[in-house]
Design goal:
Blueprint lengths: L13 H14 L12 H8 L3 H13 L3 E4 L3 E4 L11 H15 L4 H15 L6
Antiparallel strand pairs: 1-2
Length: 128
């Protein structure tokens, strides 16, 4: 089951953090069709956020066709995203690269900016 981590200092709306983290879990194969998302109550207990925020995130995921709410049963994954499993060899290479970047003195935001610029360059013209 996915565990949401809320960063109150990120400037990203809390419900969007839940949406993004769910999509990331779908892309990595950590969540698959049929899997149940944590209940709003479980997310509230783990993160101390408002239950309406969780429900807003789940409604957004449902609107995008990624999950479906089943009355009295919970919210379940309908479809996955991407095809890169969490144990991909590419992940290991990325971990090594991130470690080298950190050892070189780069901060997390510096690494994110560098990585994003390379992604933008490599996937120029792709619509994701």
């Amino acid at each position: 089951m996915v565990e949401f981590r809320i960063d109150r200092r990120s400037g990203v709306a809390t419900y969007l953090q839940i949406v993004h983290q769910t999509k990331q879990a779908l892309r990595l194969g950590l969540l698959e069709p049929g899997d149940k998302l944590p209940t709003a109550r479980e997310v509230v207990e783990a993160t101390a956020i408002n239950p309406n925020t969780v429900l807003k995130a789940y409604r957004e995921l449902e609107r995008e066709g990624l999950v479906e709410a089943r009355r009295g049963l919970g919210t379940f994954v309908r479809r996955s995203l991407g095809s890169t499993p969490a144990d991909s060899p590419l992940r290991g290479e990325l971990v090594e690269w991130a470690t080298r970047a950190r050892e070189a003195g780069l901060e997390k935001d510096d690494v994110a900016a560098l990585f994003t610029s390379v992604l933008d360059e490599q996937f120029k013209g792709d619509h994701a």
